[in-house]
Structures are given as C-alpha cells and as structure tokens.
Design brief:
Number of helices: 17
Order of helices and strands: HHHHEEHHHHHHHHHHHHH
Largest sheet: 2 strands, antiparallel
Strand content: under 5%
Strand order of the largest sheet: 1-2
Helix content: 55-70%
Number of strands: 2
Shape: elongated
Structural class: mainly alpha
C-alpha cells in the first residue's frame, strides 16, 4: 500500500514539469516563427496585446474559497484569475478579420496553409509577451502560481488559434460572419474551456497531491460562472472587431472589466468574513478552554482529509468553518476541561456541548450547514454527515497526538483505528492516515 502510494505521488509530481515543458516548447516555436515571418497587422496585435496585459495587471486578488491553507488553482478557484486578459487572448486567437479586412496573415493564398499556422504562432507570441508584461508586478509581489498561470494561458490560446486559424484561413467556414462562423466560435470556445479546466486541475493535482477528480469537478463548475462570461466576451469581441474594427474592444471589454473589479471586492469580503470566523473561533483559546492554535490545526487537517475524500469546494468551506468553531460550545462550561479534551467526557455531555456550540454558530449568521456540523460532531458516526465525521476524527487525533508525547501521532492514529468499530468512520481514519503519510504531517504541539 505504501509503495503504491509513493508511485502515485511520483507520477502526480511529474505532471507540472511536463505541462510547463509543453508550454515552453509552444512558446519557443511561436516566438521563433514570428521573428522569422515578421509581425503582421501590428496595430491589431498591439491593441489585443495591450488588452491582455491590462487584464493581467488588474487581477481580482486571491479568489480562493477562503479556506485556511487552500492553494488557489493555476487559474484560480473561481476558474480565472484574470478574466479580462483571458477574454482578450481568446478573442485574438479567434479573430479572422478587422472591419472586413484580413486580420492576421489571412491574405495568404488559401492553398498554402502555412500562413495560417504562422498566424497561430503570432497569436501565441503576442499573448505570451502581453501576459509576461502584465505578470511582472505580481511576480514582484511574490505570487507563486505565475508559471502555472502562464502555462495554462499559452497552451489554451495556442489550442484555440491552431484550431481556428487554419480552418478560417482555408475558407471552410466563410468570412462573412454567418451562422457557420458563429457556430465555429462557440464550438472552439467550449473545447478551449474544457482544455483549460483539465490543465488547471492537472497542475493543481501535481502541486498539492489532492485527488484529480474533485479538482476537475470544481474547475468545470467554475465554467458556469466567470468562465462562461470570459468565453462569451471573447466570442463577442472577435465578432465585433470583424464587423466594425478595433473600436469595438473598449466597448465590449468594459462589462468584463467591471466584473473583474467586482470580483476584487468579493475577494476582500470573503477574506474579511473568514477572518471574522477565525477570530470568533479563538474565543475558546483566549478564555483558556482550549490550547492555543487547536482550532486552526484541526481546520487545516480537516480540510486536507476532506480533499482526500473528494469533497467539493463549497463542502470544504463548510468543513473548514465548522472545524474552526467546533469547540465554541465549551464557552458554556463553568470550569474548563483540562486541555479542552472533550473526548474524555461522557457521550451525553459531549452532545450537550456540541448542541450549545451549534446554537452559538446559528446566532453568528454563518451558513446553517456549519451549525449542523458543529451540532452533530458528537453523534455516532453512522448518523453524521461526512463533514461531522471528519471533524470528530481529526479533533480526536489532535487531542491524542498532543497529549501522548514522543511518538504521539502514530499512537493517536492507532487508537483511532482501534476505535473505528463504534466511534470514528473507518474511511475518514484511513483518509487521515493517507494525508499524514503524504504530507509527513505531525501537528505542532501547543505551547
């Protein structure tokens, strides 16, 4: 079992270098071809390059789900960290004409398809240069996902351009902007979005070791939000520029720019919301009911276990909030429990404290699902929702590992395994064991 797990981890770690190598190869070939052939329609290239660079500059901020320790995906948990830049890059890749005139090497004789591949190379080059320029401030500020972000951008834009430019250049879909042309754009946008989602999930899987399936599911779910807006704006801008020229760019990118600024505000609100919950969770530590950092450690490890079990993004958010606030019911006690270890209490007392904690959570205005998890964390595991099972097992592990001294984590895990017959869900305990092995995670002891 251990050897198989090691092989899987090694294979997952190879995905990111492979994707980066493919992106680098596409970038080098595209730049070389563009330098050899020269830049066609420089005004169009400058306009779309500027739009892409501005979109990269005006990032909405860290738009993850707000969970502790959650690393945003290469194209972010909301599916796209730079929606305006992505829309500009896609519209340039799908551009056939500029106000009725050929836009990018489309004047080449249709019998020679080499020109259309040169056009695709120019598209990738312009998008790459613009994305690099727009990413400079974020690299300077220490953002860590820039390489993954650029790899996604280069490969998805290259895919769209290589699919569209040869077909359009050979006249297979006409040049008048008819129904066939619109259907081509829609089909390519769907395929490009799926390609981007797969790449994003694969890179996140390689970087974090989280299961690929749930990551891909979250990416596909994100396509229904900002992803659909990016695709629609990219298609509309390409069609508008083909009809009326570059003057259409500022008009049609304005709604997405406003959306991007709104996402920045949304990210700030989410960050403040989570900080408020974290501060409320520390009340038990300040009052001396639980050791310092206990809620934070349980939340971080619970999220890792939830990831391993395949919980979705919204489910992980509920799990994290519940784990942060799982001990808040202890504030109702007259005398603190030694070390806050509720596991040593009778089952009836554990349920009473859990119910009191759920009542407090409901008064805070937090999602009712969080209160349910807090209320049911002391129930028999067969009657609990998955999140409550995770919080119960992880809390017990942290308490046992903290109090067992040297070798405590291993002994704590073994005690949980022995208790799976009646107290802890076996699948949760095994997921916890996998997480601890994978990350070599032994929770820091309080004090």
């Amino acid at each position: 079992m251990t050897a198989l797990r090691q092989v899987r981890l090694v294979r997952s770690c190879r995905i990111a270098p492979l994707v980066h190598a493919c992106a680098a190869l596409v970038a080098v070939v595209s730049v070389t071809v563009t330098l050899w052939a020269g830049l066609d329609a420089p005004g169009v290239a400058l306009a779309f390059g500027a739009l892409t660079a501005v979109g990269e500059l005006v990032l909405p901020g860290p738009l993850g789900s707000g969970r502790a320790g959650a690393a945003p995906g290469p194209c972010a948990h909301v599916r796209e960290t730079a929606p305006l830049g992505a829309a500009g890059a896609l519209s340039y890749a799908l551009l056939g004409r500029d106000a009725g005139r050929p836009a990018v090497f489309q004047a080449v004789d249709s019998a020679h398809t080499a020109g259309t591949f040169v056009a695709a190379a120019q598209v990738v080059t312009v998008v790459l240069v613009a994305s690099l320029l727009g990413s400079v401030p974020h690299v300077w500020r220490g953002r860590t996902a820039t390489a993954d972000h650029l790899a996604c951008r280069v490969l998805t834009v290259g895919f769209a351009a290589v699919c569209f430019q040869p077909l359009y250049g050979n006249g297979l879909f006409g040049t008048s902007g008819g129904p066939a042309y619109a259907l081509l754009l829609v089909a390519l946008l769907v395929l490009t979005a799926l390609c981007d989602a797969v790449l994003s999930a694969a890179l996140a899987h390689s970087r974090t070791g989280w299961p690929f399936g749930p990551l891909l599911r979250d990416e596909l779910r994100g396509l229904l939000g900002i992803g659909s807006a990016v695709c629609a704006t990219g298609a509309v801008m390409a069609l508008a520029v083909a009809a009326v020229g570059l003057w259409a760019l500022p008009l049609f990118c304005l709604p997405l720019l406003l959306t991007q600024l709104a996402l920045r505000r949304y990210a700030a609100v989410r960050a403040t919301y989570r900080q408020t919950i974290a501060s409320l969770a520390r009340a038990t530590e300040i009052a001396g009911y639980t050791p310092a950092g206990h809620a934070r450690r349980v939340a971080a490890l619970s999220e890792a276990v939830g990831r391993d079990l395949g919980l979705s993004g919204p489910e992980l958010t509920v799990l994290e909030y519940a784990a942060l606030m799982h001990d808040i019911g202890q504030l109702s006690l007259v005398d603190p429990i030694p070390s806050g270890a509720t596991g040593a209490l009778p089952a009836a007392e554990q349920r009473r404290i859990a119910l009191l904690g759920g009542a407090v959570v409901r008064q805070t205005g937090v999602d009712a699902a969080v209160a349910v998890v807090v209320e049911r964390q002391a129930d028999p595991y067969r009657e609990q929702p998955v999140a409550a099972r995770i919080v119960r097992a992880v809390n017990a592990y942290e308490e046992k590992a903290r109090d067992a001294g040297a070798g405590g984590p291993l002994r704590a895990l073994e005690e949980l395994r022995l208790g799976t017959a009646g107290e802890y869900a076996p699948e949760v305990v095994e997921a916890l064991a996998r997480v601890l092995y994978r990350d070599r995670l032994t929770l820091p002891m309080a004090g």
